[in-house]
Amino acid sequence: MAKRRKPSYRAKKKDPVLVDGKRPRPMYVDYKDLELLSRLVNRQGKIIGRRKSGCSAVSQRAVAKAIKRARIMALLPFVAE
Predict the structure, then answer these.
(1) 68 close to 60: Cβ distance less than 8 angstroms
(2) Which residue in 4, 42, 62, 79 could disulfide with 29, CB within 3.0 to 4.6 Å?
(3) Three-state DSSP string of the chain
């Protein structure tokens, strides 16, 4: 007789882009907010994926755009040293 596996439940992560629990309309992440952006970039300087960061698809697109803008403005590095 085969053993049944327990269903594993993954806790939903809170979207880090939400302001006071609400999604800003229109969705915009400020490229000058380095505190938020540095949490969404790993040690190598890569953008963290949606699953790990807990962002929704809409906010992840806005985060990626803001990180790329901050890199161009030399606020964030393209690669870690």
Answers:
(1) no
(2) 62
(3) CCCCCCCCCCCCCCCCCCECCECCCCCCCCCCCHHHHHHCECCCCCECCHHHHCCCHHHHHHHHHHHHHHHHCCCCCCCCC
Residues 6+ apart with CB under 8 A from 69: 31
- pLDDT surpasses 90 at 8: no
Neighbour tally for 43: CB within 10 Å: 6
Instruction: State the first-to-last Cα distance of the chain, in angstroms, to the nearest integer.
Output: 55
The residue among 20, 30, 21, 17 whose CA lies nearest residue 57 is 17
Q: Is the pTM of the predicted complex or chain greater than 0.85?
A: no
